[in-house]
Amino acid sequence: MPSESDKWGWKHVSVFGGFDKGSGTKRWKCNYCSLRYNGSYSRVRAHLLGSTGVGVKSCPAIDRSLRDALQILEEERLARKKKRISGSGKSSKRIRNSQPSLSSVWKASPREDIDDSVARFFYANGLNFNILNSPYFHDMAKAIAAFGPGYEPPPVEKLSSSFLHKEKTRIDKAMGPIRESWLYTGCTILCLNRLDCALGSFSSNVFVSSPRGFIFLQTLEINEGNKADNVLAGVLNNVIMEVGPRNVVQIIMHPRHSSKSSESLIQSKFPQIFWSPCTSYSIHMLMEDIAELDWVKPIVLCAKGIEQYVLTQHSSLSVFSQNLKESFGPTSVKLSPSYRLVQRIVELKQALQELALSEEWRQWKLTFPEDFLSIEAAILGNEFWSGAHMVLQLFEPFVRLLGLLNIDECIIGDVYNWRVQALEAVRSKGIDEIILKQLEVLIENRWETLFSPLHATGYILNPRYFGKGQCKDKSIMRGWKATLERYECDGTDRRVLREQISSYWRLEGSLGEEDALDCRDKMDAVAWWENFGSETPQLQTLAIKILSQISSISTFQVSWYENSFCREAANSLEADIAADLLFVRNNLRLQGRKIGNSNSSSVRT
């Protein structure tokens, strides 16, 4: 019979009593889930390993990696037992376990020494400190601690072969439910391209997004040249065929990295798929277009002049401006830099005017060119400040509402509502009608260039925005018409959708039930259509597919634009192994983001 020291399970429970002296039956509590049981070691082992049939539950607090480590301990125990039995015939003689216990190792290696070893590993290998926040790092640490002393890492050749294949198979299996959901919710192909001017090539990272989750498909290095567009179109063609043409609602690519040639090639073969600009980029461009209005541009240029000549030269103001409290979130500031510049100058008005009247200023301005006098006049006069206040009034509703809009998570339709609400807020400020008209014309003219027609259709189909007069808005109805013509090539099917949207607007059948009306702004838009749209099945399907899509690729830009690992892997490994490694690594990063928002940035390596 093996000694108690060979029963690894006792180290993972707390024993607080036995029934009889010398009995193997004890009272114990699991160190992970705190459940209490009475029983022998076989019950402890079953609880920790997830075995059934001995009257205890599987520990709910042990994850897969820790359970695998515990299973290894059990297999080693059984191997030692087998060796004793098949040894020198002295099977009944107890063999003392020469391996030190976990507690003795911990006593020999204080926490500080262990921390030093971890830190040294990071320093020696030049690793990003954010790896410490990775859920996979913590899983690894727990598994090694559970195994105890004597653990040896797998050999390098196995990491690039059997273990890599095993992990890829596991990820493929985990992706099964996500892939199956595409038929119901549709999906979006996200294409992130990064240009490397030095090498004359760009890398293309291709993802698929749906409500069930994100999937990384592949990375491709494309050399710039006349055939680059054809290569990119070929990659997207293969991806569409893999995902399923009827499952793909749209492709999103940053406009600066897109090409009309690739777009034309794809749309000629898959006319039902939308080629949508990134919403973050489009909003940025729209806000900067507003800054180019005839009466706004001079104010912005003057503010830039003040920043260039004063804030960057005068240390006290420079520090002050850097420490200004942001009035809006980082996203709104990033997407409207001209507004933030004017706002910053206005906040510094008193300090700037005091500086312009000082003796220091008189001496200082002698070293600047003559056009600096216009900057001085702007600071001390009233014209610039009154114009700046007018610019802030014009921009403020757009920026404020943008700060409330999570671009990375908002669904199609939310952005159009942002446009409507912002214009209504501008009107309420009593701004001059001529200026207001210029703003409306600008947005109307630029909207269809910068945004997909899916935004207008999403604004129609989202029950939260029901009754906003969409059917009387020419811009919205043009978007609806464009969506129908792309989504359904058959005239009869389009007519059915037109009839059913009328039923939606007229609140016919289940769409007009009391619960349907009450839940418009209380339920998720897709869930609302699932519950109340069954009497208009074709429209229900369209609504679910469109309202299930995201509209921005900014979620991935920070994480993957600096992904130099792609090229390093391709250069140092065989092509197939490099492709598998990138597939595994990037999908684990996506899973790491999903484990918890607190750990979402931990996989940026």
UniProtKB/TrEMBL annotation:
Q: Give the Pfam families listed for this entry.
A: Dimer_Tnp_hAT, DUF659
Positions of the DUF659 domain: 155-306
Listed GO molecular functions?
A: protein dimerization activity
Q: Which residues cross the membrane?
A: none
State the superkingdom: Eukaryota
- Cite the InterPro entries for this sequence: DUF659, HATC_C_dom, RNaseH-like_sf
Please report the stretch or stretches of sequence annotated as the HAT C-terminal dimerisation domain. Answer: 515-588
* Descriptive protein name: Zinc finger BED domain-containing protein RICESLEEPER 2-like
What species was this sequence derived from? Nelumbo nucifera
Taxonomy of the source species: Eukaryota, Viridiplantae, Streptophyta, Embryophyta, Tracheophyta
